[in-house]
C-alpha cells in the first residue's frame, strides 16, 4: 500500500508506520516509495502502470522531530487515539463538575482556576510529545487555550449558553442516577419523564384578521451628521405583509412621493409576540411619513391606522459674542443662535465664579408663525386631507439676544445645555464623551466665557487743598496716587489661582496741569491748562512732577476698564524760598577780672521752620594744640539766641557753614558776617567727678576726685553735709589738675552730701561753685546667723539625704559665708555664696555646723554668736527579726513552717506590738517578727518556688502595715517548696532599706491527689437485653494511698448526676464497676468527682475534665415516613431508622430476598416498577442486635393517556365551527385528567397557555368538542392510585414531578 502514489491534497504518511506496509516480498526494505506525479503515466489500454523510482534508504538515526514515545513502543495512530481518549475523559470530568454546580445552583472560581491549569498543561504538553498530526504551533496552542478558558468561564460561572439545554440533557444522562428497590442504579428521569404516559396533540387553527400601524408609540426622530439615519417602526397585528407602501412629504418643497419597501427591507423584522410583527424602516431624509398601503399574503389590503411621523433635522445651537473681557456692570451682549423646528426651547446655564444657575427660553419661533404642533389637542395626522403644506416643519435659525448685567467680577461662563424642538426631540450637550443617542459632546461653539474685571479707582494721597506739596526748586517729587479697585480695594482677578503670577495691574493716569501764575482767584485752573498722561506698570508706580502749579487727576484706566477718580483729585505744588541766616553777637566778660569768657549769638532766619544751623569751632585744646569741631543748633522758629563759652583759654573762631529747613537740606551759606572770632580767658573751675550711685560702709571712708581748670596753684574749699550739720575743709597749694578728697571715718549711717564750694587760682579771683555729690552710709553692718527649723537649731534626718540649713542674712546681696563642721577634726572651712537673705547651706554629714565669717558685696559683717551653730543628726534605720521562735523551727539561717496541701488557704497575720513590733500568725502556728523603726512599714519579700516536677520560679511581693495589723497570704497554688525571703523593709522615713542579714521562712506544699481514666474518652456500649454484666472501667490514681473516691454518672437527658463513693483504695490502680442501679437506656457520662489521699489532701474535678462514655443501646428500629401502603412507580419509599449508623436493612421484592446498607438514619429507594415491597429486619453497627420487622408497601403502575390516538393532528376550521377531541386512558378507573389550550406555536415564538380544564372519566375513553383555536394537549392524568403531570416540568431541574390531587 505504501507504494501507491498520493494526491497532493492527501494527508502525509504517518512517520514510522512503514514497517506495517513494507515490502511483502522479503526484500528487507521497509521504506515507502513516493512519486512526484499524482498519476502514473500509462502507455495504452491494458498496459500496467510504470514502476516508481526507489526511495533512498533512510538513516537509522532518530530525528529530533520524532515522537517522544518511540513508535516502536506505541505506534502513532495509537498515540493519537490515547490522546483523544484522555481529552474525552477530561471533558466528561469537566461536565461532571459543571453538573454539580447546576445541582447546587451556584458557581465556583476554584473550579475555573482548576480547569484553566489542566487545559494549560494538556494543550501545551501534547505538542511536546511530538505525536504526528498533533504537533500544532504556539499560536494554535494559545488560541485553543483561550477558547477552552472562555468555555470554562461560561460553565463554572453559570453563564447561560445556547447549548445549555443539550449539556443538561447530556450530564443528566451521564450522572443523574439513584438506587432503586432492586438495588440497581437507575436514572430518575427515565422513570419520572416517561413520555409514553401522555401522548398525542391536537391543533385547531382559525385564520385571524390583521391591522397595520406606523409608529404607534409616537416616537420622535431627527437626523444630523452623527445620527444620519433613523428607524421608523411599522407594527403589523395578526398579518404577514407582502407589500408595503409609504407616503413621504418633503419639508422643503411640499412635494410628496410614494416609497415601496423592498423584500430585503421587509426581511428585517422582529416578532414581539405570536401576533405582532415589527418592521423598522430605515431612512436618511427628513420629511413627514405616512403608511399608505399594506397587502398581506392573501393579496388582501390590510386595515391601516392613520398616523403621521415627522423626521426633522436635529436641533442645534451656537453662542456668539463680541468680546471675552468685560468690566463690572457691563452687559453680557451675547447672542444664542438656535436652529430646529419651532417652537423651540433652549436651556442654558450661567456660571459666575462657582455659582451656577439654570435658565431657559420657551416658545422660540419666528413672527407670525403658525404650526399644527402648537395645538393642545394634537391629532394623529398633522396634515389634513387634501393639503400638502408641511413648511411649518422646516428647520429655522433664530437668534436670541441675551443682555445681563455682569456683577460681580470673576470668571463667567454661558453654556447651552439642552435644545428642545416642537416635535419632542431633545439635544442634550455634555462636556464629557457621547454617552447616549440624544447626548452630544459640548464644543466651544456652545460655550462663551467672559473674564469680568474690577473697575479701577484712583485718588491722591498726602496732598490736598489744605496740605500743598512743598518741593525745593528744581527738584522732582512723586505724585502719590492711591490705586485701588471697586471690589476689594485692590486690582485682583478672582480667577487667579493661588501660587500663580500676580495679575497685571498696569494702568493709565491722565491729569491736567496749570502753572501758578495762571490760576484763578479761587485757586482753580485758569486759561493755561496742559493735559498729561502717565502709564503705570504696577499699582504702586507713580509719576513725578517738578513744575509748581495745580495738578488735577481727570481719569484712570486699567488694561480692560475705565475707572473712577475720587477726592482728593487735585494737588498744588509750591516752591518755598531758600533759607537765609543773619548773625549778630555780643561779648561776655568776667565780672571779677574783666576778661572775655564767651559770646552771646543772635540768629535771624528766613525759610520754612524747623531749622538746623551748622557751624565749625576752631580753638586750642587742653594739650596745647588746635582742633576743629562741628556743632548743630536746632531752631524751631525764625529767631534764636545761644551762648558760646569755651572751657580753655585761647583764640576761638566760629564759622557758620550751612542751614537746613523742612524743604531744603544742607543749604550752603555764603556772604559776609558768617564768621565770629574771640580771644577767651575763662575763670577757674572745679568739677566733682562722683559716681552716679555711691554707698559707703559704716565706719568707712569715702574718696572722690575733683577736676581743676585754671592757673596753678589752686585753693579749694569743700564741705561734708549730714544730719543738718556741715563740716568745712580748705586745701591750698594744689598744683595738679586732679585732686582726691578723702573723708574721715563715717560712724553714723544716713544721707551724706559732699559739695565743692569755691576755687581760687593764681589770678586771685575766687569763684563760687555748686558742684555736689550725694551718697549713703549704711546704718548697720551685714550680719549672719542660722535660722530655726521647727523652732530649734537641731534637725534629725534620714541617712543619705541632704539637709538644707537655713541662713538669715542682712545687708546687700550677694553674701559670702564661711562655715565648718566642728565634729570633724582637721576640717577646712567652706565658703557659701548666698544670693538671698533666706538662703541655705546644703550639708550631707551629721555634726555641728558653725558660721565663721560673713561679708556682702561691699562691706564685711558680723556673726550672731547665739545662732552661729546648727546640729544635724540621723534617724535610726529599720530592722527586722523573729521575735517568737516557738511558732517556727529554726534550721540554719532560715525558719521552717508547717506543711499544707496544694490549693489550701494559709496566711500570716501581721500585728504591731510594743515598740513598733510586728507578729505573724497562721491558723495553727504563729511567729512574731519585730520591726524597729517609724510606722507605717512597707516590707518587700521574695517567694522562691521549687517544684517537684519541672523548673521553679521566683516572685517578688510586698505588703504594708499601716495600723498595726496586716495579713500575708501564703502561696499554695502549686505543689513544692516555697521559700520566703524578706529582702527589704521601709518605714515612713526610709525607702526599702536592705538588712545585712535577710529573714528566710520556708514552707512545703504537698501536691493534690489525682484520679484519671486509663482510656479517657472510651465508649462502652451494649444492647438493652444484655445489661446483666457490668462493664469494667480502669482508673489510675496518684498520691499517697489509701484513697477515697467519688464518681459521677450522668445520663444525657438528666441534669443531676448519680454519685458513687468508694473508700479505702490501697493501690494506685482501680477497676471500677458501674452499679446496675444507676444505668438506664441511653448515653451516660462517667467522670471522677473527688479524690482524697492519706495526707488529707483532696481534689475536685473541674467541669470539662476527661471522662468516659457508657452507652446503653436499645435494639434498632425502622419506621415508614408515611403511613400509606400504596405507592406509584417513580415515587420514593422512605423510612426512618433509630440506632447508630450505618444500618443494614433486609427486605423482599418480587419474592427475592435483598439486603441494603444505609449510612444515615434515613433509608430511601425509588420504585422503578410495580410490585410488593416488604421490610423483614434491620441491624446497626453500634450493637449486634437485629430487629425482626414485617412491613409491606404495594407499588402500582402509572396511568397513561393518549389524545388523537397518540399523534399530532392539525385541524383548520372556520369561525364558529367545532371539532371532536378523543382521549383514551390506561390504568384503574375512575380517571381524572387535565388538558390545556395553548396558542399555536410560531417560528421564533414560544407557545402560551390560554386556558386549563379538568375532566373526569369513569371509562377508558372520552370525547370533548371544541370550537376555539389553539393547541390541545393533556398535562396531567390521575387514576384511582397514581397521578402524573407535566405542568411543573419547567420549574423542576430534574424533570417532571408527580401531580397530587
Automatic annotation (TrEMBL):
<dbReference type="GO" id="GO:0017056">
    <property type="term" value="F:structural constituent of nuclear pore"/>
</dbReference>
<dbReference type="Pfam" id="PF24312">
    <property type="entry name" value="Ig-like_POM152"/>
</dbReference>
<feature type="domain" description="Nucleoporin POM152 immunoglobulin-like">
    <location>
        <begin position="575"/>
        <end position="682"/>
    </location>
</feature>
<feature type="domain" description="Nucleoporin POM152 N-terminal transmembrane">
    <location>
        <begin position="75"/>
        <end position="160"/>
    </location>
</feature>
<protein>
    <recommendedName>
        <fullName>Nucleoporin Pom152</fullName>
    </recommendedName>
</protein>
<dbReference type="GO" id="GO:0070762">
    <property type="term" value="C:nuclear pore transmembrane ring"/>
</dbReference>
<feature type="domain" description="Nucleoporin POM152 Ig-like">
    <location>
        <begin position="781"/>
        <end position="868"/>
    </location>
</feature>
<dbReference type="Pfam" id="PF24519">
    <property type="entry name" value="Ig-like_Pom152_1"/>
</dbReference>
<feature type="region of interest" description="Disordered">
    <location>
        <begin position="1"/>
        <end position="62"/>
    </location>
</feature>
<dbReference type="Pfam" id="PF24527">
    <property type="entry name" value="Ig-like_Pom152_9"/>
</dbReference>
<feature type="domain" description="Nucleoporin POM152 ninth Ig-like">
    <location>
        <begin position="1116"/>
        <end position="1193"/>
    </location>
</feature>
<feature type="compositionally biased region" description="Low complexity">
    <location>
        <begin position="50"/>
        <end position="62"/>
    </location>
</feature>
<feature type="domain" description="Nucleoporin POM152 immunoglobulin-like">
    <location>
        <begin position="926"/>
        <end position="1006"/>
    </location>
</feature>
<dbReference type="InterPro" id="IPR056541">
    <property type="entry name" value="Ig-like_POM152"/>
</dbReference>
<feature type="compositionally biased region" description="Polar residues">
    <location>
        <begin position="38"/>
        <end position="49"/>
    </location>
</feature>
<dbReference type="GO" id="GO:0006999">
    <property type="term" value="P:nuclear pore organization"/>
</dbReference>
<dbReference type="InterPro" id="IPR056543">
    <property type="entry name" value="Ig-like_POM152_9th"/>
</dbReference>
<feature type="domain" description="Nucleoporin POM152 first Ig-like">
    <location>
        <begin position="211"/>
        <end position="311"/>
    </location>
</feature>
<feature type="domain" description="Nucleoporin POM152 Ig-like">
    <location>
        <begin position="455"/>
        <end position="571"/>
    </location>
</feature>
<dbReference type="InterPro" id="IPR056540">
    <property type="entry name" value="TMD_POM152"/>
</dbReference>
<dbReference type="InterPro" id="IPR037701">
    <property type="entry name" value="Pom152"/>
</dbReference>
<dbReference type="InterPro" id="IPR056544">
    <property type="entry name" value="Ig_POM152"/>
</dbReference>
<feature type="domain" description="Nucleoporin POM152 Ig-like">
    <location>
        <begin position="1199"/>
        <end position="1288"/>
    </location>
</feature>
<feature type="compositionally biased region" description="Gly residues">
    <location>
        <begin position="16"/>
        <end position="29"/>
    </location>
</feature>
<dbReference type="InterPro" id="IPR056542">
    <property type="entry name" value="Ig-like_POM152_1st"/>
</dbReference>
<dbReference type="Pfam" id="PF24097">
    <property type="entry name" value="TMD_POM152"/>
</dbReference>
<dbReference type="Pfam" id="PF23664">
    <property type="entry name" value="Ig_Pom152"/>
</dbReference>
<dbReference type="GO" id="GO:0006606">
    <property type="term" value="P:protein import into nucleus"/>
</dbReference>
